[in-house]
Every structure is written in structure tokens, then in C-alpha cells.
Design goal:
single chain; 3% strand; 175 residues; Cyclin A, domain 1; two-stranded parallel ribbon; mainly alpha; 2 strands
């Protein structure tokens, strides 16, 4: 029997939202990790090796230590779509997902929230150096042309689609 989640993403328990987001990202990774990596497709988001922490555990860590708002978690999916449209060779893979997530959280909280952490705090949570996060943040902003706002209706669509497409069918949005 599926877990019934609220119609509005702002009311969804964060753990459910994290689980749905991680599930979708893991499915993307399974698909995109099969694509051969060409040297000209490398970006600043690529790491040399895939981190050993799962996407689910990484998202849980980020949420736990940043008090991340739901909109900032969901907007990561929007940023993936925007980044891929601006950089057609870019893919979210096991080599890019963790660095993309922490850069997205860093940028989105600064754009959307009244309170946010310092880059040194985000870097520590993300397991990277501050200088590296600073470079990722600049690259992120440059590629997205500083267009960081996403309408709430679009975030709501991402939320509903996450629940509907969960790989185990574990979630259902209430009517």
C-alpha cells in the first residue's frame, strides 16, 4: 500500500521528499552512467571517482545540516533540466550528482531563503574544499545566467511527478 503524501509539496514530510528525489536521481544515474564519457564533455561538476555515499544518504546529510527548505530541494531538479538544456553534453551521473547537489543547495538557498549557511559550511557538509565550492557556484550561476527563480507551480509539478514515478510505487499524492 503506497504512502499518501499531501497534495502540496510544502506540506510533504521532508523525509518523503528526500526519498522521492533520491529515487529519481538514482534512476537517472543508472541510465546516464551507461553513457560513455567523452573528454570534451567534462565539466567542473565531474569528480575523478564517484563518492562512496549514496545519493539518499547525501541528501539526508545535506537536509540535516542545512535545514534545507522543500523548495530548495525540488528546485535542484529544475536546475538539472536547465543545466542540461544549456549544456547538452552535461549529464547527471555518479561523477557529477554530489557536486551538483551541493552547488544547487548553495545557490538556491542564497536566492530563495532569508537565512542560509556560509560556503565553508556547505563545503564541509558536501565533502569538498571551500575553493572548489566557490568555483562550482560561479560555474552554476554562469551557466544558468543567474536565472535561479522557478515558479511554485513548476515545483509543484516536479513534486507530483516524483510521487507518481517512484520506482517502487511507494508514494501517492492525495486527491
Amino acid at each position: 500500500m503506497p504512502i499518501i503524501v499531501p497534495n502540496d509539496f510544502q506540506e510533504c514530510p521532508m523525509e518523503h521528499l528526500v526519498s522521492m528525489t533520491a529515487d529519481m536521481l538514482e534512476r537517472l544515474l543508472r541510465h546516464n552512467d551507461q553513457i560513455p564519457l567523452h573528454p570534451d564533455a567534462l565539466t567542473r561538476f565531474h569528480s575523478r571517482t564517484a563518492p562512496s555515499i549514496s545519493v539518499l544518504d547525501y541528501l539526508r546529510r545535506v537536509v540535516r545540516y542545512t535545514n534545507l527548505e522543500r523548495s530548495c530541494l525540488l528546485i535542484t531538479l529544475h536546475y538539472i533540466d536547465k543545466m542540461c538544456s544549456k549544456m547538452p553534453r552535461f549529464t547527471i551521473s555518479s561523477l557529477t550528482v554530489h557536486r551538483f547537489i551541493i552547488a544547487s543547495v548553495c545557490v538556491s538557498t542564497k536566492a530563495l531563503c532569508d537565512a542560509f549557511c556560509t560556503n565553508s559550511h556547505y563545503a564541509k557538509i558536501g565533502g569538498i574544499k571551500v575553493a572548489e565550492l566557490n568555483v562550482l557556484e560561479r560555474e552554476f550561476l554562469s551557466v544558468l545566467e543567474w536565472r535561479l527563480i522557478c515558479p511554485g507551480e513548476v515545483l509543484q509539478e516536479y513534486y507530483v511527478n516524483l510521487a507518481r514515478s517512484h520506482s517502487s510505487g511507494a508514494f501517492e499524492v492525495e486527491d
